[in-house]
C-alpha cells in the first residue's frame, strides 16, 4: 500500500482502489470537502501523472471517459482548487508521489485496464439528498425530483414562472458552467420540450450566479447525471433481435414523450396533482 499525505489531503493506493480524502483545513475548497472520501476503482483510471515544480509539484488523476458522473457533469470546468483529482505536493513528498504514479501504472498494466471510455458509471454520484443556495435561488435534489426556488433578486421571468419541479424521468441532460468576468455561471436542467438559447439569468430551468464558483452546485449536477442514461451505453444489449430491440426502443421513446407531455401539463396548471398522478399511472400501466 502506498499513502501520500499532504496539507490538501491524502491519497492511498492498495493495488485495487485509489482512495482520495480531502484535508479538513479551512483552505480546502468546499466542493472537495462536500464530496468527502472518493473511492476510485482501478478500472476507472486512465492515467496518473506527477509534475514537479520549483516550489510544489502537482499530482493529477485522469479518469476514463464515462467512468465518473462527477467528471461527466463538471470535468474541466472547475477551478483547480475545487478539482478533487488534483493534489498539490510539497518537495519533500515528491519521491512518494512518483512512487504512487509507478504503482498505479504497474497495476493498470497487470490488469490490462483499457484507456477507452466505459459504457456504464464505475463510480457512484454524490449522496442525496442535496441542496445548494447560490445566485438567484436554491436547488435541491432527493434522487427523484429536482426543485428550483427563486430568491427575491431573481429575474422577473423566473419569479413569474414560480418554483420549478423536475422529475428525473423528464430530464434529458444537465449543464454546469462556472462564472467568468463576462458571463454567468449556471446549473441548467434540460427536458425534451424545453426551449433552448435563453440566457441563464432569465431561464426558469436554470439556477444562475453572476460571480463566484457556484457553491456546491457541482455535486447536484453530478448526482442528477448519475441517474440519467449513460452517454456511452450500448443502444442494444444484444439479448434481443434487431427488430425486437427497435420495437422496444420505440416503446420507450413513446413512453418518455407521453410522460414529458403530462409533466408539462402538470407544471402549467392544466392538471392537478391528483390528475397528474392518475394519468401517469395509467400511462405506465399501458407500457
Low-confidence stretches: 237-248
Sheet of most strands: 4 strands, antiparallel
Percentage of β-strand residues: 25-35%
Measured as a percent range, the helix fraction is 25-40%
What is the helix/strand order?
A: EEEHEEEHEHEEEHEEEEHHH
Number of distinct helices: 7
Pfam family, one: DUF4429
Protein name: DUF4429 domain-containing protein
Structural summary, described in words:
It is a single chain. This protein has 7 helices and 14 strands. Helix 6 runs antiparallel to helix 7. It has 287 residues and is of the alpha+beta class. It has helices at residues 30-35, 69-74, 94-111, 156-161, 217-225, 242-267, 273-286; strands at 2-5, 9-13, 17-22, 38-41, 45-51, 57-63, 86-89, 130-134, 137-141, 145-150, 164-167, 171-177, 185-191, 206-209. The strands form 4 sheets. A 4-stranded antiparallel sheet has the order 1-2-3-4.
Amino acid at each position: 500500500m502506498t499513502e501520500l499525505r499532504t496539507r490538501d489531503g491524502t491519497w492511498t493506493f492498495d493495488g485495487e482502489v485509489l482512495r482520495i480524502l480531502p484535508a479538513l483545513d479551512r483552505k480546502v475548497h468546499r466542493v472537495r470537502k462536500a464530496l468527502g472520501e472518493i473511492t476510485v476503482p482501478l478500472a476507472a483510471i486512465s492515467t496518473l501523472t506527477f509534475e514537479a515544480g520549483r516550489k510544489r509539484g502537482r499530482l493529477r488523476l485522469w479518469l476514463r471517459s464515462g467512468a465518473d458522473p462527477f467528471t461527466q457533469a463538471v470535468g474541466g470546468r472547475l477551478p483547480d482548487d475545487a478539482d478533487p483529482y488534483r493534489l498539490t505536493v510539497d518537495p519533500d513528498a515528491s519521491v512518494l508521489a512518483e512512487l504512487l504514479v509507478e504503482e498505479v501504472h504497474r497495476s493498470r498494466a497487470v490488469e490490462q485496464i483499457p484507456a477507452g471510455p466505459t459504457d456504464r458509471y464505475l463510480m457512484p454520484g454524490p449522496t442525496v439528498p442535496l441542496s445548494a443556495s447560490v445566485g438567484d435561488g436554491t436547488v435541491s435534489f432527493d434522487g427523484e425530483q429536482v426543485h428550483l426556488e427563486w430568491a427575491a433578486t431573481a429575474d422577473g421571468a423566473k419569479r413569474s414562472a414560480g418554483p420549478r419541479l423536475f422529475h428525473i424521468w423528464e430530464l434529458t441532460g444537465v449543464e454546469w458552467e462556472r462564472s467568468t468576468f463576462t458571463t454567468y455561471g449556471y446549473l441548467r436542467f434540460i427536458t425534451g420540450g424545453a426551449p433552448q438559447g435563453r440566457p441563464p439569468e432569465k431561464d426558469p430551468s436554470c439556477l444562475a450566479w453572476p460571480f463566484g464558483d457556484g457553491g456546491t452546485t457541482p455535486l447536484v449536477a453530478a448526482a442528477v447525471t448519475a441517474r440519467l442514461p449513460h452517454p456511452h451505453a450500448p443502444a442494444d444489449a444484444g439479448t434481443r433481435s434487431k427488430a425486437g430491440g427497435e420495437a422496444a426502443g420505440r416503446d420507450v421513446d413513446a413512453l418518455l414523450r407521453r410522460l414529458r407531455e403530462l409533466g408539462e401539463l402538470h407544471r402549467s396548471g392544466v392538471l392537478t396533482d391528483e390528475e397528474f398522478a392518475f394519468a401517469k399511472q395509467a400511462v405506465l400501466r399501458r407500457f
